[in-house]
């Protein structure tokens, strides 16, 4: 990967730095980056080098590499990371930082506060760090509140997270709702509903807390009665995550014949178009992209009644909600869907498309960012 010389980044334009864990997070943010550039901003991206680095660079932004371990908790290495970040931001001197994912939100905000750099943070979901009742949870909340003392804006991606963040009483920081990352409706087009056998599709990283075990157990139960029902899994094995499902376990499930593992697929729209229904029995979400993309392509969606999922799934309208970590509840709604007529399934899918068009179009999401960035640039 070509690295840029941070000391050579000089411009008269307002400089926006996007800071996130990995370039992978931005692989579908071409339209967002292009919108910023088209509006006269210079865009730089700071993230950990991965196979998507050059793809993100091709969007027209400059890229810089910084090594972040998402699960690292060694104080020595975290201090070194903060020092590296301070050096990079001091040399680049961006006018504004857009932080995405939890470590960049915290570390980026702390360093920006010292350097008097404006900040917009996006909480892509409130994970276990916020809700586990232990010493680390208490320490994490204190650290998070400290980091946000001078941030301009925190965007939440669902209404539950917005309420939680407002209850933290971050006095100087505006808490605003922005519906997820948005969906490119020109790419994720409405497609004809398949008339073949029922094909369920779960798209996510292979993590226990995405409800994948419950999905597999439900598949075993349903396939005993109807072997023609298909259950697919698509997504990468995220070994850095503490909830990662081992590849060996996924291979065991696949060999049992209850699911088909597609791996990490690039053209996910093709698989969605061939599916009958998108499923995500997650324990908690920000706003799940897979459900948004499925609904955008006029597919019914099934998910758990948890923050993030219930923001997009309208029960018995564009899909069904089930209880979290409850295989029986998931089996019940899957069977309820299977028993629907073809016409009803098509109608559910059309309602999902309408919901995404009205509430989750990426143009709406990106314009929210742009409006706030322009306000900040004038102050």
Structure, described:
Helices cover 41% and strands 16% of the residues. It has helices at residues 30-38, 53-57, 75-92, 102-115, 128-131, 135-147, 159-166, 212-225, 247-256, 268-274, 289-296, 327-338, 342-359, 362-377, and strands at residues 15-22, 42-48, 62-65, 96-100, 118-123, 153-156, 174-177, 199-203, 230-234, 260-261, 277-280, 301-304, 319-322. β8, α8 (212-225) and β9 form a beta-alpha-beta unit. α3 packs across α4 and α8 packs across α12 (327-338). The two termini are 36 Å apart. Residues 6-11 have low confidence and may be disordered.
Q: What order do the helices and strands come in, and which of them pair?
A:
Elements (H helix, E strand, L loop, with lengths): L14 E8 L7 H9 L3 E7 L4 H5 L4 E4 L9 H18 L3 E5 L1 H14 L2 E6 L4 H4 L3 H13 L5 E4 L2 H8 L7 E4 L21 E5 L8 H14 L4 E5 L12 H10 L3 E2 L6 H7 L2 E4 L8 H8 L4 E4 L14 E4 L4 H12 L3 H18 L2 H16 L2
Parallel strand pairs: 1-2, 1-4, 2-3, 4-5, 5-6, 6-7, 8-9, 8-11, 9-10, 11-12, 12-13
Helix pairs in contact: 3-4, 4-6, 8-12, 11-13
Question: Roughly how many Å apart are the termini?
Answer: 36 Å
Count of DSSP helices? 14
- Biggest sheet strand order reads 3-2-1-4-5-6-7
Low-confidence stretches: 6-11
Shape: globular
String of helices and strands: EHEHEHEHEHHEHEEHEHEHEHEEHHH
- How many strands? 13
Main sheet specs = 7 strands, parallel
Strand content: 15-25%
Work out the helicity level: 40-55%
Counting helices, strands and paired strands, the structural category is: alpha/beta
* Overall pLDDT level: 92
Radius of gyration, whole Å: 21 Å
């Amino acid at each position: 990967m070509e690295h840029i010389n941070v000391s050579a980044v000089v411009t008269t334009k307002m400089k926006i730095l996007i800071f996130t864990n990995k370039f992978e997070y931005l692989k579908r943010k071409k339209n967002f980056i292009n919108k910023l550039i088209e509006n006269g901003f210079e865009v730089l991206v700071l993230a950990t080098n991965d196979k998507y680095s050059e793809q993100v660079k091709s969007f027209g932004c400059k890229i810089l590499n910084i090594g972040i371990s998402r699960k690292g908790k060694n104080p020595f290495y975290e201090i070194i990371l903060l020092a590296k970040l301070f050096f990079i931001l001091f040399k680049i001197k961006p006018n504004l930082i857009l932080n995405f994912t939890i470590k960049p939100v915290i570390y980026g905000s702390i360093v920006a506060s010292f350097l008097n750099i404006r900040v917009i943070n996006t909480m892509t979901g409130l994970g276990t760090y916020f809700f586990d009742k232990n010493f680390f949870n208490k320490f994490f909340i204190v650290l998070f509140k400290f980091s946000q003392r001078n941030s301009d804006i925190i965007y939440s991606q669902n209404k539950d997270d917005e309420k939680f963040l407002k209850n933290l009483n971050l006095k100087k920081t505006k808490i605003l709702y922005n519906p997820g990352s948005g969906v490119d409706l020109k790419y994720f087009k409405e497609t004809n509903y398949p008339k073949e056998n029922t094909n369920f599709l779960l798209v996510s990283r292979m993590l226990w807390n995405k409800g994948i075990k419950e999905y597999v157990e439900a598949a075993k139960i349903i396939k005993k009665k109807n072997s023609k029902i298909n259950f697919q899994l698509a997504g990468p094995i995220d070994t850095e995550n503490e909830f990662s499902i081992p590849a060996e376990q996924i291979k065991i499930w696949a060999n049992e014949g209850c699911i088909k593992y597609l791996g990490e697929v690039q053209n996910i729209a093709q698989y969605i178009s061939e599916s009958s229904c998108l499923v995500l029995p997650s324990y908690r979400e920000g706003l799940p992209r897979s459900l948004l993309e499925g609904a955008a392509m006029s597919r019914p969606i099934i998910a758990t009644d948890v923050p993030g999922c219930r923001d997009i799934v309208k029960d018995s309208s564009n899909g069904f909600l089930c209880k979290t970590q409850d295989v029986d509840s998931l089996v019940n709604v899957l069977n309820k869907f299977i028993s629907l007529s073809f016409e009803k399934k098509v109608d559910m899918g059309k309602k999902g498309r309408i919901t995404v068009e009205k509430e989750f179009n990426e143009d709406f999401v990106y314009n929210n960012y742009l409006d706030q960035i322009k306000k900040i640039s004038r102050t």
